[in-house]
Structure formats: structure tokens, C-alpha cells
Amino acid sequence: DTEVTQTPKHLVMGMTNKKSLKCEQHMGHRAMYWYKQKAKKPPELMFVYSYEKLSINESVPSRFSPECPNSSLLNLHLHALQPEDSALYLCASSQATGPAEKLFFGSGTQLSVL
Amino acid sequence: AQSVTQLGSHVSVSEGALVLLRCNYSSSVPPYLFWYVQYPNQGLQLLLKYTSAATLVKGINGFEAEFKKSETSFHLTKPSAHMSDAAEYFCAVRTNTGGFKTIFGAGTRLFVKA
Fold first, then answer.
1. Cα A21 vs. chain centroid, distance in angstroms?
2. Interior angle at CA B12, CA B8 and CA B17, nearest 5
3. Mutation target vs B (from A102, A105, A109, A111; most B CBs, 10 A cutoff)
4. Alpha carbon of A65: minimum distance to chain B alpha carbons (Å)
5. Alpha-carbon distance B24 to B45, whole Å?
6. pLDDT for the residue A1
């Protein structure tokens, strides 16, 4: 199994809603990532979890709250988002956090904030 | 911090023609470089990676890239383009700033004409 599974695939939410994005991998990878990708732009790193601990936070606003309940799961909790937060949210994993690690990506959640 | 620059936001080739996508890196130490491909409405997939074992790296789908230290380049090539190669291609580098993370170039959209 070399898949990273993200749910839901599409999400529409209002600015007062609370929602969560989910990501799951069963490759035994110990690092997991959240990226944000706007249309026609490259993915931008948001968070890195290493061995279930948050290791990198790229100064992301607190309305985005990551959570890593176990080594296979990664969540991104959303609250009071703004329309400019509409984007494709990509989850990725890697075997470890060394310099040569390649990333395995999910298909993403397309988020629209109204 | 290490970074990559992709020259040309769009490249158009005819089917069967040579594909050349350009990437230059900025690094004072040997970098770990990657090429990823993103098809519409999908996540990213690794094409190949350079980790200093060999300067010519072969990847999936007939792509290869050559690391040239004198030119600080890591250009992606394919001898003969296929319609299915039409996608967005991202050059990336693993950089160590408070932990290893993957940073992407701006991307190059490849169009393949019949």
C-alpha cells in the first residue's frame, strides 16, 4: 500500500464553520506534512510532524490547527476561515525526516470558503 | 536557505519532440534535488531525485535529469514527448532550516501538441 488517502475530496464551508480535513497512510512513514496550494502556484508548506510531534510550523494562522493522533493519521482542524484560505490542501508523508526523503502525496482536499 | 528556480512557466512541445524543463538551484552545500509531476486534480508524484550517487538520474515514464554543479542546474529531459506527459512539473529541494522540509519551485506547465 503506497497510498496517502485524504478526505473529503471537496469541502465548502462558511466563515463561521468548524471542519476537519483527514489524512491517512499505512506505509509506516514517520513524517507527515500539510501543504496549501493555490491555483497555478506551487505547494506551500504549512506543518511538519515527525514521530507524531509537531516539528515545523511555517507561521500558519491559528485558525488552522493540526493534530497527529497516531503515526498513521493527520488531521487539520479549520475554524473561522477567510475566503482567501480557499485552496487545495495536500497531505504528504515520508519515511523519515532526513535530507533525501521523497514525499508521497494524497490527492488533496479542494476547500472553498464562502 | 536553499532554493530552486524554474525557468519558464509554460513549455509547449509537439508529440515526439524533446522535452526540456529547466531548474537551477542555489546552495552552498551539495543539495538534494527532486522533480515532481502533478496531473490535473491530483497530488504530486515523484519523478526522480538526486542524492549525489550519480549525476545522471533516471526516473519514471522515461524522464531523466542531469546534475551539473558548474551550472548549478538540474534540468529535466525526455527524448520523445507523449500526450500523457502534459502536466505541471515542479523542481524541489530539501532544505534544513529548523528541520528538513521540501521546498518547491514555481512550476512549469508542459503542453504537448498533437
1. 7
2. 120
3. A102
4. 19
5. 20
6. 63
Q: Which of B64, B80, B74 is nearest to B105 (CA)?
A: B74
Hey, are the CB atoms on B43 and A92 less than 8 Å from each other? Answer: yes
> What are the pLDDT digits (tens) for B69-105?
999 999 999 999 999 999 999 999 998 877 888 999 9
What distance in Å separates the CA atoms of residue B10 and residue B108, rounded to the nearest whole number? 5
Mean pLDDT of A87-107: 94
Grid cell listed for A78:
479549520
Q: Which of B46, B96, B104 lies nearest to residue A43, judging by beta carbons?
A: B104
Supply φ then ψ for residue B9, to 5 degrees: -80, -20
Count CB-CB contacts under 10 A for residue A11: 18
In the numeric block, the cell 554543479 is attached to B69
Instruction: Give chain B positions within 8 Å (CB) of A95.
Output: none
User: What residues of A are in the B interface, CB distance below 8 Å?
Assistant: 4, 33, 40-43, 45, 48, 50, 55-56, 90, 92, 97-108
Contacts A100 to B, Cβ<8 Å = 32, 49, 51, 94
Of the pLDDT bands very low, low, confident and very high (cuts 50, 70, 90), residue A70 is very high
**Other CB atoms within 10 Å distance of the CB of residue B92:** 26
Q: Residue A96: which residues within 8 A CB-CB, separation 6 or more?
A: A29, A30, A31
